């Protein structure tokens, strides 16, 4: 895996950086409703939440990002509609499908200005974030493993950063969790990328029932700090 | 650039910024109420919590509900208008496309501190709203919004006597801080001041449509003066993204 | 889907059991009936009578009713069971189960596997009212369900998983339910828990709950207006899919509470789905 990332580290850092102006800061990745439901109360809960999220929604996003990146590199994006449908089928909560598409639109809007590429046009009106990320990664010269790692890191660090606003936490402890997760994120990225050339139907589909349930409750909450 | 989101027509994008509670929503409501019959308007609100400002404007009935949309800023109102404007940019472009042609899209920032101003990537011109209840010396303190906005509004002037603020002095302090830039003393209880506000908006819209307005960035920090130890005084300003005329 | 390598005796643990059962229904013009009912070892298929609450079909006499019973305990580690179901054009099949399925460990920690493949043909309706699957301590199981629906086929299915018997930590369990409609993906979710899986006990997945399940309803009449999302309980939601279907999803401390939540969710859909 290191071989395939080598040479593009700077591009990977650019894409995975939470400061990439694509609106990610408005989302807590489901942490806010989990805190509100008192399912996340301390640092151990936060760590279990972040790990569970990375292993489920994170892996799904990473696998689809890697698959699109591989197809973009090969110059054949003909099964994008099928990838859209397969990703929809893996996100049962309509609110989370909407969030994924909102973030996708934003990422495309940003990357079209930052690093334009004709492949962005092939995406539909409101493409899922992993599909946009896959194309953005390929446009920056990244390979599928790096593309998968970019979205895993971006989603994970975004949710972790939200903890500082939602819980009485020491930010050093939050980053300590992220540091402990780095090895596993590398493994997940490599695993996600191992499906990059498989048919869309065979990509992983791990679910996260409580994330789906909490997302719909969050949408109906009158007072919320984060959009999701 | 292949921007699938790009609207066919472009409205004047007018930002309204200012600290919490100074009356940004009321200023927008007043503009909508008085100009909706002569100009085609849309509003984007930015909220810290949920979509409360959008709900306020909708319930006030100043525009059809579908022309008022909320952007949720994840409790980062400053970021949403300055560092990462993508969400707002998409909201503005969607509005311009869905209701084309529009004359003005108003963007209300979430209430923040004195340093929060709109990026020129998001708006063409911006109002900065203060109120007398926030204290008479706020205008003198300056800051990029106060010194650099296209128009500074000092709101709720009818309350001046109740909070021991000399409105005239506050306006003249502000005019000094703005080096002569326009300052408007406003109260919704004084219709002539609301009419002055609307005149300014009409004028800005006209200038913009004629291509005569060049967006300027108030800047992340106000231009300020340093008196150095050697007694040599000089002026500088920080990080302007656009040339000033 | 069906892996023929599992027939290879070398790949099966000593004493492991292989079974492949088949079930098919047809519509005769007046009523539906099972034209193929082939049991195999532990998978026993029987024609049955109404049994408790059931959506859509309660007390109807023109449908095919079949009960799946376990002929032996298990599956145990190393076992590979397969069930193929075809719901023929225009027919209605109600598949019930006689009891919960207890998944147990084998002697050497081998994986057990249950593979269920369902084809629901044009105009057909499949109601699968399954009983819970219990993942016993130290089990190692993969439960794989694939359902393909014709564009105008209807489906209601209930799946429930319990994490261990009472007071017991679960073994390694993974369940995948994939539903395609007109050969296009509609729902694909895998749920894994147990010592070999990470993060499943956290707040994104199960958060200490010991029962998880869902009811999936697919109704072509919803193509234009699917039911709205309804988070009707802090631990449950009825969520419209990106197609004419909903997923009612719930987590609960135990099987009784889970059953209650799932049925509450079904009742939010109103007649004829309510029970």
Explained architecture:
The complex is a heterotrimer of chains A (228), B (245) and C (275). Chain A has helices at 2-5, 9-16, 31-36, 43-74, 80-89, 94-114, 129-139, 144-166, 171-193, 209-219. By secondary structure, chain A is mostly helical. Chain A has a single domain, classed as Urease accessory protein UreF (Orthogonal Bundle). In chain A, 64% of the residues are buried. The mean pLDDT of chain A is 95. By secondary structure, chain B is an alpha/beta fold. Chain B has a single domain (12-211), classed as Rossmann fold (3-Layer(aba) Sandwich). Helices cover 32% and strands 19% of the residues of chain B. Chain B contains eight helices and nine strands. In chain B, the strands form two sheets. In chain B, strands 3-2-4-1-5-6-7 form a seven-stranded parallel sheet, with helices on both faces. In chain B, helix 7 links the parallel strand 6 and strand 7. The model of chain B is unreliable at 222-245 (pLDDT under 50). Chain C has 275 residues and is mainly beta. Chain C has one domain. Helices cover 5% and strands 46% of the residues of chain C. In chain C, strands 3, 4, 6, 7, 9, 10, 12, 15, 16, 17 and 18 form an eleven-stranded mixed sheet that branches. Chain C has a seven-stranded mixed sheet with strand order 2-1-5-8-11-13-14, with no helix packed on it. The longest helix of chain C is centred in the last third of the chain and has 13 residues, at 255-267. The model of chain C is unreliable at 1-7 (pLDDT under 50). The chains are: A mainly alpha (228), B alpha/beta (245), C mainly beta (275). Chains A and C meet through helix 4, helix 5, helix 6 and helix 10 of A and strand 13, strand 14, strand 17 and strand 18 of C.
């Amino acid at each position: 895996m290191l071989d395939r990332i080598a040479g593009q580290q700077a591009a990977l850092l650019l894409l995975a950086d939470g400061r990439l102006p694509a609106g990610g800061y408005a989302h807590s990745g489901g942490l806010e409703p989990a805190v509100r439901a008192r399912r996340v109360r301390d640092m151990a809960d936060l760590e279990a939440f972040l790990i569970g999220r990375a292993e489920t929604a994170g892996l799904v996003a990473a696998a689809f990002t890697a698959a699109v990146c591989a197809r973009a590199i090969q110059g054949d994006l003909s099964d994008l509609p099928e990838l859209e449908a397969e990703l929809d089928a893996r996100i049962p909560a309509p609110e989370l499908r909407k969030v994924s598409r909102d973030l996708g639109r934003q990422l495309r809007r940003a990357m079209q200005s930052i690093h334009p590429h004709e492949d962005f046009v092939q995406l539909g009106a409101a493409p899922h974030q992993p599909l946009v990320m896959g194309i953005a990664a390929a446009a920056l010269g990244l390979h599928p493993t790096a593309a998968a790692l970019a979205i895993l890191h971006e989603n994970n660090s975004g949710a972790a950063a939200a903890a500082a606003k939602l819980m009485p936490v020491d930010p050093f402890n939050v980053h300590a969790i992220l540091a402990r997760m780095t090895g596993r994120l590398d493994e997940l990225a490599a695993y996600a990328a191992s499906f990059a050339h498989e048919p869309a139907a065979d990509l992983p589909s791990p679910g996260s029932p409580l994330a789906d349930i909490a997302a719909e409750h969050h949408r109906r909450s009158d007072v919320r700090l984060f959009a999701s | 650039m292949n921007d699938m989101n790009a609207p066919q027509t472009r409205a004047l994008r007018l930002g309204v910024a200012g600290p919490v509670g100074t009356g940004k929503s009321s200023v927008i409501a007043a503009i909508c109420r008085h100009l909706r019959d002569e100009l085609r308007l849309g509003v984007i609100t930015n909220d810290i919590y949920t979509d409360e400002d959008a709900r306020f404007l909708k319930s006030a009935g100043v525009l059809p509900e579908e022309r008022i949309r909320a952007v949720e800023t994840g409790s980062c109102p400053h970021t949403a208008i300055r560092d990462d404007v993508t969400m707002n940019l998409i909201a503005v472009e969607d509005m311009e496309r869905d209701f084309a042609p529009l004359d003005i899209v108003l963007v209300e920032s979430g209430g923040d501190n004195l340093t929060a101003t709109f990026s020129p990537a998001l708006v063409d011109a911006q109002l900065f709203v203060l109120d007398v209840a926030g204290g008479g010396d706020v205008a003198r303190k300056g800051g990029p919004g106060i010194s650099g906005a296209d128009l500074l509004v000092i709101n709720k002037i009818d309350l001046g006597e109740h909070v021991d603020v000399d409105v005239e002095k506050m306006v003249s302090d502000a005019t000094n801080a703005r080096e002569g830039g326009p300052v408007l003393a406003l109260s919704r209880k004084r219709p002539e001041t609301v009419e002055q506000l609307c005149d300014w908006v009409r004028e800005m819209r006209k200038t913009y449509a004629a291509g005569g307005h060049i967006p300027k960035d108030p800047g992340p920090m106000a231009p300020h003066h340093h008196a150095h130890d050697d007694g040599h005084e000089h002026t500088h300003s920080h990080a302007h993204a656009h040339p000033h005329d | 889907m069906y892996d023929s390598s599992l027939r290879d005796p070398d790949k099966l643990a000593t004493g492991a059991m292989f079974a492949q059962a088949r079930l098919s229904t047809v519509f005769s013009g007046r009523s539906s009936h099972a034209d193929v009912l082939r049991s195999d070892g532990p998978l026993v298929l029987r024609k049955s009578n109404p049994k408790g609450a059931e959506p859509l079909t309660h007390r109807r006499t023109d449908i095919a009713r079949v009960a799946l019973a376990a002929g032996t305990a298990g599956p145990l580690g190393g076992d590979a069971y397969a069930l193929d179901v075809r719901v023929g054009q225009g027919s209605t099949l109600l598949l019930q189960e006689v009891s919960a399925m207890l998944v147990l460990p084998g002697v050497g920690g081998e994986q057990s596997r249950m593979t269920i493949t369902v084809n629901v043909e044009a105009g057909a309706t499949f109601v699968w009212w399954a009983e819970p699957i219990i993942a016993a301590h130290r089990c190692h199981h993969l439960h794989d369900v694939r359902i393909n629906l014709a564009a105008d086929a209807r489906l209601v299915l209930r799946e429930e998983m319990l994490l261990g018997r009472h007071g017991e930590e679960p073994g390694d369990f993974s369940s995948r339910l994939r539903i395609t409609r007109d050969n296009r993906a509609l729902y694909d979710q895998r749920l894994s828990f147990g010592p070999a899986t990470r993060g499943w006990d956290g707040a994104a997945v199960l958060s200490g709950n010991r029962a998880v399940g869902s009811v999936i309803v697919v109704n072509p009449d919803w193509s234009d207006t699917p039911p709205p999302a309804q988070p009707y309980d802090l631990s449950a939601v009825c969520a419209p899919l990106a197609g004419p279907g909903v997923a009612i999803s719930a987590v609960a401390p135990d099987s009784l509470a889970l059953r209650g939540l799932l049925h509450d969710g079904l009742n939010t859909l109103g007649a004829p789905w309510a029970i």
